[in-house]
Amino acid sequence: MKMKVAWAALAVLAVTATGCGSDSNSGEGSGKTTITFWDNNGGARTPIYQELIKRFEAANPSIHVEYVGVPIASVQQKYDTAIAGGDTPDVGGVTTSYLANLTGQQALEPADEWLAKSSVNGKLVTSMLDSVRRTVPDGKLYLVPNTSNMDVVWYLKDKLQQAPSTWDEFFKDADELTRKPDEYGYTIRGGAGSIFQILAEMYSYSGLTEFFDASGKSTVNDPKNAEFLAKMAGLYKKDTPEADVTNDFPKMVAQFGTGKIAMMHHNLGSYNDHVKAHGKDKIGAFALPAGPGGKRTIVANPVDGFAVFKNSEHKDAAWKFVEFLVSHDGNSYWNEQTGQIPANTEAQGDAWVQGLEHLKTAVDTLNDPNTQVVSPPYYLPQFSSITKADTEPLFQKVLLGQMKPQEFLDTLAQKLTDAQAEWKKATGG
Amino acid sequence: MTTMRRKAVPYLLISPTVALIAAFLVYPIASVAYYSLQHRNLTRPWADGFAGLDNFRRMLFEDEVFWHSLGFTAKWVVAEIGLQLILGLALALIVNESFIGRGLARSLVFSPWAVSGVLTTGIWILLYTPSTGVLRFLGQPEAAVLGNPGTVFPAVVVTELWRGVPFFAILLLAGLQGIPGELYEAAAVDGAGRTRRFIHVTLPHLRDAIVLATLLRGVWEFNNVDLLYTMTGGGPAQVTTTLPLYVAQRAVDSKDFGYGSALTMAGFVILLFCSILYLRLSRFGEER
């Protein structure tokens, strides 16, 4: 009797437990392979993927792709939870900013062998491939590049006639375009995502070309960077809204969308939001200005692409989908819709790239031999938490005048230096 | 054999309860306790392993944010519970009187309680948004109440009050309705005025309801994450970071589950201790 009850209870538990598990085999009965795809920036991009999936399924009738749009703010959490629960998708959108984190948990399958035999081999931008390989200790290609991005300052053409080419001009413009009580020259990103933007600004001002010096010390707290940060923090509430201190991406874009802000620093990715708010003709973009040294310096943006997960039961189908997404057609469509830089060299040659003014600015800047590129240490698994949870509140303190710029940068530099040393030791580098 | 069966029956009957408690209470608590003694950080997999009391040492002696968040949590709980109790009691007394439209008034009073947490914060964020929110009617179109360390606390307290007062009102109204009307009549005959009737009849009868409501609400406010997380994210500059919010930042955002577990244990012990102390002091449920 007792045994029976116990077995019955066990059986119930077992049934419920399996009920929560993966259902990646659901399509098997119909002879179709079902793969799950997680979009790492679900929302505005969803229709783009829906169209691409339609095209892919038409070309591959035996594969069905299930789309899941994950909001960008929670994508890392979702992946971590999925890895812990063994419930990862077959294919996922991944950027180099958290690639090291995923490979650190042995969640991804390298794509080198697939790529070598693929029709897209040799057609992906080398610098993006290198950037992906540099992110992981074993140098393998865990992420197939789809696009890259560049920081730009978006501006309203009816407010600002001539884009500034130096930071001094920029600060002057920001001040002149501010008309109290409610028109501002600029908006600072003070909430989520603030650190990456301020890093890009500081290095473009200081012209430093390395994140770490020869001894492994972070260059973030260089006096030139601190000088810039003090100037930028000085704009807060003077030439920017008070609400900026908690500005994350949606709030910042919404603010810029009201038409009361003249300039906003973000990247190419928000192009469609601005067009929706202001119309194509009113929007302009310039690359981050040069500092007193006069040389254009840009901080390399993360490379965004697709990864096949190790737990996938349909890796070949998964790769087929990835291959389709980064093919000339797929890649061209995706990047044209989002207004970003294609990873496929054939797509880069398409006419629409030349037709989009901001994209032309970005491609020209990146291809200019005088442009210096600084690569942030995306390979550090801690990079993301250092530049987000650890230091974003401190940056708010700087804006609020509760912390000195130099003190903030010293803290940030120390964390990066420690993480770099620890990582080198752990990877035997 | 029969005696053994007899003996086994009660255990068998309580076994589903025990199994459920073990699965949903003991196991999670034990696993957090276990991880609090481990280094477990997804961003530093090479350093994972037994930590002993390292996480607790770091928490108690090196982490300023922990102490700050603890202080803020206390301030938050005390402010919320105090104000919710006073306003909830006032509302309950009002809707306990008989007047025309009482049914409508009661439903209106309780309606905020039915609104989901994230929706509540969504509404209040819109109200506080500069240039479009309510502050432009006060001649402050550009004031960012949620971005100013001086105004963010009252702003979030008001929001949570809006949501929390109905809970007190419901519980206390139920308590009020359980007080026999004769007691008031007898007190009135003895010459007691409104105030004395309130102090000597109403309050003593509401004691259990008040103790239960403040305790439950106290624990909930302590653990409140949804409102502060969505409204301020604990900011600006961490001034509205409560302990559970800090746990979310360390464990979920920074992926430091070992340290996050240690912080959670601290919260658990504090709540457990406060609850026992409170129930003892208030002599909850005792016959008088």
What would you say this structure looks like, in words?
The complex is a heterodimer of chains A (429) and B (288). Chain A has 429 residues and is an alpha/beta fold. Chain A folds into two domains: 26-148 and 302-348, Periplasmic binding protein-like II (D-Maltodextrin-Binding Protein, domain 2); 151-300 and 367-427, Periplasmic binding protein-like II (D-Maltodextrin-Binding Protein, domain 2), CATH 3.40.190. Chain A is 47% helix and 14% strand. Chain A has 19 helices and 13 strands. Chain A has helices at 2-19, 46-59, 75-85, 96-104, 112-116, 126-135, 167-176, 194-206, 223-235, 249-257, 271-278, 315-325, 328-338, 345-348, 351-355, 357-367, 383-390, 392-399, 405-427, and strands at 33-39, 63-69, 91-95, 108-109, 144-148, 151-156, 184-187, 261-267, 283-287, 297-299, 304-309, 341-342, 372-374. In chain A, the strands form three sheets. In chain A, strands 1, 2, 3, 4, 5, 11 and 12 form a seven-stranded mixed sheet that branches. Chain A has a four-stranded mixed sheet with strand order 7-8-6-9, with helices on both faces. In chain A, strands 10-13 form a two-stranded parallel ribbon. Chain B has a single domain (66-282), classed as MetI-like fold (Orthogonal Bundle). The model of chain B has no long low-confidence stretch (mean pLDDT 89). Chain B has a two-stranded antiparallel ribbon. Chain B is mainly α. In chain B, helix 8 (194-222) runs antiparallel to helix 11 (257-282). In chain B, 71% of the residues lie in helices and 1% in strands. In chain B, 32% of the residues are buried. The interface between A and B is large, with 37 and 38 residues.
Describe what is shown at a glance.
Chain A: Pfam families: SBP_bac_1. The complex is a heterodimer of chains A (429) and B (288). Chain A is of the alpha/beta class and 429 residues long.
Which descriptors would you attach to this protein?
heterodimer; A: 429 residues; D-Maltodextrin-Binding Protein, domain 2; 2 domains; seven-stranded mixed sheet; four-stranded mixed sheet; B: 288 residues; mainly alpha; MetI-like fold; two-stranded antiparallel ribbon; 11 helices; 1% strand
